[in-house]
Structures are given as structure tokens and as C-alpha cells.
Amino acid sequence: xxxxxxxxxxxxxxxxxxxxxxxxxxxxxxxxxxxxxxxxxxxxxxxxxxxxxxxxxxxxxxxxxxxxxxxxxxxxxxxxxxxxxxxxxxxxxxxxxxxxxxxxxxxxxxxxxxxxxxxxxxxxxxxxxxxxxxxxxxxxxxxxxxxxxxxxxxxxxxxxxxxxxxxxxxxxxxxxxxxxxxxxxxxxxxxxxxxxxxxxxxxxxxxxxxxxxxxxxxxxxxxxxxxxxxxxxxxxxxxxxxxxxxxxxxxxxxxxxxxxxxxxxxxxxxxxxxxxxxxxxxxxxxxxxxxxxxxxxxxxxxxxxxxxxxxxxxxxxxxxxxx
Amino acid sequence: xxxxxxxxxxxxxxxxxxxxxxxxxxxxxxxxxxxxxxxxxxxxxxxxxxxxxxxxxxxxxxxxxxxxxxxxxxxxxxxxxxxxxxxxxxxxxxxxxxxxxxxxxxxxxxxxxxxxxxxxxxxxxxxxxxxxxxxxxxxxxxxxxxxxxxxxxxxxxxxxxxxxxxxxxxxxxxxxxxxxxxxxxxxxxxxxxxxxxxxxxxxxxxxxxxxxxxxxxxxxxxxxxxxxxxxxxxxxxxxxxxxxxxxxxxxxxxxxxxxxxxxxxxxxxxxxxxxxxxxxxxxxxxxxxxxxxxxxxxxxxxxxxxxxxxxxxxxxxxxxxxxxxxxxxxxxxxxxxxxxxxxxxxxxxxxxxxxxxxxxxxxxxxxxxxxxxxxxxxxxxxxxxxxxxxxxxxxxxxxxxxxxxxxxxxxxxxxxxxxxxxxxxxxxxxxxxxxxxxxxxxxxxxxxxxxxxxxxxxxxxxxxxxxxxxxxxxxxxxxxxxxxxxxxxxxxxxxxx
Lengths: 323, 497
What we know:
The structure holds two protein chains of two kinds.
Chain A: H1 8-22, H2 25-29, E1 37-41, H3 48-64, E2 68-72, H4 79-87, E3 94-99, H5 100-108, E4 119-126, E5 130-134, H6 143-152, E6 158-161, H7 167-179, E7 184-187, H8 191-199, E8 205-209, H9 210-218, E9 223-227, E10 255-260, H10 265-280, H11 282-290, E11 298-299, H12 300-321
Parallel strand pairs in A: 1-2, 1-3, 6-7, 6-8
Antiparallel strand pairs in A: 3-10, 4-10, 4-11, 5-8, 5-9
Helix pairs in contact in A: 3-10, 3-11, 5-12, 7-12
Chain B: H1 2-11, H2 14-32, H3 38-49, H4 54-79, H5 88-99, H6 103-127, H7 129-137, H8 141-158, H9 163-177, E1 180-181, E2 188-189, H10 195-198, H11 203-222, H12 240-262, H13 268-282, H14 294-318, H15 324-335, H16 342-347, H17 349-378, H18 385-402, H19 407-426, H20 431-454, H21 464-496
Antiparallel strand pairs in B: 1-2
Helix pairs in contact in B: 1-17, 2-3, 2-4, 2-17, 3-4, 3-15, 4-5, 4-6, 4-14, 4-15, 4-17, 5-6, 5-14, 6-12, 6-14, 6-17, 7-14, 8-9, 8-13, 8-20, 8-21, 9-20, 11-18, 11-19, 12-13, 12-14, 13-14, 18-19
Protein name (chain B): Putative tricarboxylic transport membrane protein
Domain DUF112 (chain B): 17-435
Organism (chain B): Thalassobaculum litoreum DSM 18839
């Protein structure tokens, strides 16, 4: 009865709301996508996020039914791209690579203008755990070796990280905190230079994710001494997991897709369905695996819960490390 | 040796050659458009190569890379706008020559020097990969710090006669580089709450604006004042005497460029600056640098093109990408199931030698396209200004926008353009500002890393390699003084006799 008191427009709105609530997806989804979709990559061409993003775009196109074009909106440790993606019109035509930095930087960089809460979760693509890598000549073969060495000479071991706002620094700091050791952190412009510096023996240890370390250990240029995971399937064969050494540091890196907050559910459903089909495409799996990591896929709300957990884990790590 | 012969025959197969030639042409065009750098050209092409045959795919990227680094010199010479960051030094003498009515010769020298530098670096890639890679690996923060300072002292060379004004411009560049979130400690600086400033000032829109806008404004000022000089490009090649006299400078620059390119983190931009600077210091006519010196063009172009071959050295032998272009190439290798590094030559020797041969052939193609196309390229200058100027402005706006797809960069370009105009009118050199902006973040990062590594012991800054570079860094200041002193001494001895 009360509905009668509403104006025409109000009725339409209420009805639309009911329709939305009931999830009459086909009618809504038919309107999407109407034009090519932009995938925002907040980091530069050639980096790890760029690589995963471009591969995803390539394989997802046929499933989404429209062109997906990649735009590298870089600067400010990802702030520029994330902020652009979060502020875009929430109609699904601008989606963003949501990666580790978005969970870490709000805790580590002052006035970082954007966080995971500005995005609607679409899907997680990869989550390679962090590893520690050393030069084979270093004589360090395990995490225990490293800790013993650091205890013998406090402040002598140098650990290369991917710089501010990166989870690699937090991982090193958490490890130092939990193991009670004193080390020197050397911030680099990304994990690549940190690994190169370790290979050139300028620093002792590099923190980098499994995908980035994989090529270095596959031909013996570097040695992995631990993998920060408790899931053997996610570890590296023949390398002891950090959990086996008594450390649980769960702030590894990840690469995922997000849409602006407020994107209608039917549009999100189309995107999520696209992700599901893409992640099950054997050609996509093979291509991603060649870059050093297996796909690790969580869809929609499941990914949202996981992402919130990550954000909190980073906050806890920052507090524990006293940064 | 057989491997190399096989490599050449694989590259010279018609299909491979067509792809490589197409890639080189594409690269030249990309490089010539201000703002479209080698990195962008390669990044755009890379996904298309995933489905190609590995050799063709990788060589296509190599072709675009070599082509783009050379292409940057075309707009530098003809329009006074460096097409890529590596062409900033080329602009100084190339555009001056062009204004003197000799654009053809300037293009010819740039083409020959690019070919020579690129080819010598290809030879180094084939014969000296391993020793050079080991040397590059010895570069730690202390060595980088010295290298950056070395490149910065080149500001003196890039300032023409106005040394103090050059220093001033360089410091403005350094200051602009400090804006945004710093890369060592994550501190936000000078952004006043604006996201656009938080992201830092990219040197691409600044470079375009600083060089392109003043030139267009000056052209507009000249309209109607004097009849436009009809530019005829009959000659591309300078005389044999000039060519021979350029050879030593080209060779030195090629060696410098190859090494700088091989060092991870430094690319053709740093190579060109260092090459140009050493050229001026060691030249018999340093006073001509900046006023249309053939030697200046030769030094800059030989150095920036040799950096391409150089940058492939750590990639192929150590699996280390030295910059954005080689990082994308590394990804392409891996997509094809290949792992660059010490084992690549062992497991895929054929492919490695085919790539060696490919770099060689890419440079020959560059020479062919450059020499045959120079007359055509120079025609740009015959386009009426009423069409040319708006076209340049449009291209510049697109270029500024393209790198980060950020509309703010277009605004930054125009602001930089206004500043550039004032700088031209007041005689403040613009190149040092760009150098400061490019090298600022490197200087800061390497200094911070060096200090972390050496602790409180300042002598730790001077490793064997870094000490040599520090000495080279002060050479531009000390050598002219020493030369003057010896000259005075000589004249005194003469008068005594």
C-alpha cells in the first residue's frame, strides 16, 4: 500500500532495487560491456604486475566479449593508478590490478590516498609466497644458518628489499623481530635490482616473491633458503618452509583484479564469471606458470574476505616491526 | 664460428628479415615521435610476439629497440625536440646544424654514428659478453653513485658557455626530481596534497615541453620577420675528411655506451650524456660543441645506440635486465620457455648466436633506412609552419599523455614549455634541467644505499672501480685548467727563448 504514495520515479527506483536484490542478472548483464574495458596497471611496463595484467587481458578478452586495453598509470608507489581506478565510474568499464602495494602502502607510506576498501573485489589471480635468496658462495644454506650468522655479528647482514611500501621490507622486519636479530635493510627500486645486487655480492640476502626468484634458482645463480608459507603445494621443491623453521609470516605478495567500489552486482558477476573462465583456460594457466608462479584464484566475496585479512596482516606486521 | 654463420643465415631468411625490417622501421617512427620512447614501443609490441616463433618474436623487439633509440635523433635534429630521452644531447648540435641549413649532413652523421655505435656494441656482445658482464656485475651502489655523479658533471659540457646558468638549471631539475614519494624511504615530499604531485614529475612531459614549445613559439615569432629559408637537402654525407676526423670520437663513445648500457640501471640516456661530455673534454674544438658541432652529434649518437647492444649483454649472459626494455625482453624469453642467463648459451646456443646476428643486421637495416630516408625525413622542414606547428603541438600533447596516460602530464608539458621559453630568452641552457630530473632519483637512491652499506666509514665510498669513475667525473673541470696551465707554461718558455 505504501508504495502507492511514492512518485513514479520512486516506484521505478524501488522496483529496480527489488530487481537488483533478486539478482535478475541477465537483463542487467546484457548492458555490459558496452565498450572496451580499461585495465589499469599502477606500475610501469615490464614489471611483474604489468606482465600478469597483460597476460590476463589477453586471455580474458574472448570471455568478456570486448577488447580489454591495458593502461599503465604509474607514479607515487602505485598511488596514481590505484586512485584513478578507485575513482572511475563504477560501471565495470575501468578495472584495476589490485596488488600487494595496495595492502601494504596504506600502513607504510604517509598520506597514501587509497586502500583496499575503495575497491569491489573481483578475483585473485596469483599469490606467490615470499622467499629469501642468497648467493651460492655465501655458505648460507638455511634460515637457521642466516639467523645464526646474524646473531654472531649483529648489524652486519644486509637484506635487500623492494623499497618503501613493499611487503618485502615488512617480511624482513618481521623476521628480524621474531628471530631477535639485527640486520641492515637496503631498499632497492623493486625486487629485480635486489636480486641482481645479491648475485653481484653487494648485499647478502634478497627478499622477493617466488615468481621473481624462480628463474634465479632454476639455474643455480642464487639459492633459496626459505619460503614464507605453510602450504607445501605453494612452496619450492627442496626448500624448507618458514613454518617448519617456526616462523609464520603471512604477508606475501598477490596480484588481483578489482572494480571501483559501488559497481552493480550484475556487472561484478560478469567480471567474476570472466575471471573464472579465464583462470580455467589451460592456455592462460600455462602462460602464467611460465612466468614463475601458478595461478591462485579466489573469486568475488571470497577474495574480498581474503583481501581484508591481508590488509590487517600488513597492519599487524607494521606494528610488530615498530615502523 | 659455425654457430655465427648459421645465426646469420637464420636471420637472413626472408620471413625473419621482413619482420626485423618492419620492426626497425616501426621503432624509428616510434622514436621520432616525442614521448613515444623505446620502452613504450617494445611494451606495445611484446604481447604480439608471444605467439610468434621465438627468434622472430625476440628479434622484432630488438629491431624496435634499435630503431627507436636512433629515431629519437630525427626529431632532435629536425625539430629541436628530443624524440627519446637519449637524444637530449643530440638536440644541442643537431638542431643547431639544422638551423644553419645543414639538416641533411646532421642526419647523415647521426645515422652513420648510430650505425657505428650499434655495430660495435653488437661486436662486443658477440666477443666480449662475459668479461663485460662480470665487470657490470661489479657495479654496486658505490659504483653507481660515482657513475651518476660522473654523468652530472656532464652538465658542465651540456651548458655551452653558460656554466653557472647550467648549474642553476641542473639544480632546478634535481629539485623537481625530489617531488613525490621518494623511492628509498617512502617519504612524501612537496605534493601539497595533490595526487598529481605525489606521483612525481615524469621527465618525459618536461622534456617535450621544455624543448618543443619554445621552438614553436620562436617559429611563430619569426613568421613574417624574415622569409623562411628554403631548405634543400642535397647532401647527406659530409666529406671524407670530416668523416675520418669523427672516427676517434665515435669509437670512444661506442666503448663508453656499450659499458654504460651493460651496467644494469643505466641506459642510452646516461650513455649519451657521458659520451657527449667525454667528447667535449677530449675534443680539439670543445668551443664548437653546442653550436652545431659534427663531433657533438657523433658522440651522442654513437653512445646512445651502442647502449642497446650493451644492455643485451647482462640480459643474455646473466639473465639480468638492465632497464625497462630488457625487462620486457626477459619476460618475452620466459614466455617462450627460455631462461636468459649463464645456461642460455649452453642450452640454446643456436638462438643466442641468431640474436647476435640479429642485432648486427638490425644496425645495417638502420643504416639503409637512415641514409635512404634522410632526404624524405628532412622534407618535414618544407611543410608550411601554419601546418607544422599545430601538428607538432598535437604530437607533443599525445606523447606527453601516452607514457603514464595521465592528462596532468599534458598540463605539465605546457607549463614546462612556458618555463622553457623563458629559459631560451634568458640564455639558461635547458639540457642540464633534464639531466637533473633524470638523474635525481638515481643519485638519491644510490647515495642512500651506499651509506647504508658502508655505515659510518666514508672511505668505503671509494672502491677500486668507483675511484676511477670519480677521477673521470672531475676530469671535465680539471682538464681544461690543466690545458690552460700547460699552454701558459709553453708560451712562457717560448718568450724566454
